[in-house]
Design goal:
The chain is of the alpha/beta class and about 210 residues long. It has 7 helices and 7 strands. Helix 4 links the parallel strand 5 and strand 6. Helix 6 crosses helix 7. The radius of gyration is 16 Å and the shape is globular. It starts with 6 loop residues before the first helix and ends with a helix.
Length: about 210
Amino acid sequence: MPPVIPLAILCQTASFIKSASQVDQCPADQGLEVAFAGRSNAGKSSALNTLTHARLARTSKTPGRTQLINFFGLDEQRRLVDLPGYGYAKVPLELKEHWKQHLDAYLTSRQSLAGVVLVMDIRHPLSPFDCMMLEWADTTGLPVHILLSKADKLSFGAAKGELLKVQNRVRKEFGNRATVQLFSSPKRLGVDEAHAVLEGWLFPQDAEVEAE
């Protein structure tokens, strides 16, 4: 049985809860949440905004602007989380180390974390930073769903070809724990598919009943 309120509609009601620069500032670790991660300028904030039909996450042509862990509530027990963009060379080293320390703490200690949406620019997928995230998820057993963003920048055939290459490499190196899809914020490509993944993570009992 699906959620009483379809996730696509629930996402439209998403609202800002708070920002945290370190784990002890995060909301209470209860319920379920899905974190959005990605290399700076990969389209993470745009993807989050598109999936919620709102401008929750700050978008900018300047990479590295998301400097806090930002929490958005869907209902009293479910949240979406916008993590700091990683890998931007011009961010001061001190800030990079701060992000790394507290992101590691968040990713390894947050009991309510149900899955990670990893956003990659389809033209530059599987960077060392992306692979680091996948290796971490593989170690902890947490599911990852990859959005190959900016798919509209390639022809349909080229985008499909890139999707197959990434799927094959991810399957070979990380098994079935990570899934991959095409995504475009301007074209709204892949929105329904992404919502289905989020729904399975945020409403796991409903997904189990449906599977039975």
